[in-house]
Amino acid sequence: CLDTGHMFLAGADPVEIARLASSRIHHVHLKDVDGPWAERIQSGQAKFRQSVIDGLFEPLGGGAGDIAGVIRHLESVGYQGWYVLEQDVSLEGNPAEGAGPKADAQVSVEYLQKLAAEL
């Protein structure tokens, strides 16, 4: 399973991992990450759990990860597995109608629809 967000947070390039391991990838978790926040986690200035609570993960296309590059590469080599949209959040209560992870997921789906039209 290639998890784009966790790969990025670990300091790896998800596109390069997809290139190196294409034949071994059978499942993809699509997750985008705020770049400056990722740097703070990598340097030890921020803790992962608190960063998730504070909004570390962005809707697809809004973060520093090359989501399009991962998908383009996998599609170019005939990837047949699943893409799972992940939007990690921590909620203290119910978000307002149309807000929160549902709104983020809608932004991500729109991003993926645009990308699919280009492929």
Question: Could you describe the 3D structure shown?
Answer:
With 119 residues, the protein is mainly alpha-helical. It is built from six helices and five strands. A three-stranded parallel β-sheet has the order 1-2-5. The chain has a two-stranded antiparallel ribbon with strand order 3-4. It starts with a strand and ends with a helix.
Mean pLDDT: 92
User: Could you tell me the number of beta strands?
Assistant: 5
Q: Give the distance, in angstroms, between the N- and C-terminal Cα atoms.
A: 22 Å
Helix content: 40-55%
The spatial strand order of the largest sheet comes to 1-2-5
- Regions with little confidence, pLDDT below 50 for 5+ residues: none
Largest sheet: 3 strands, parallel
Please state roughly what percent of the residues sit in beta strands, choosing from under 5%, 5-15%, 15-25%, 25-35%, 35-45% or over 45%.
5-15%
Helices, by number, come to: 6
Shape: globular
Radius of gyration from CA coordinates: 15 Å
What is the ordering of alpha helices and beta strands?
EHHEEHHEHEH
Output the structural class: mainly alpha
Spell out the key features of this protein.
5 strands, 119 residues, single chain, mainly alpha, 6 helices, 12% strand, three-stranded parallel beta sheet
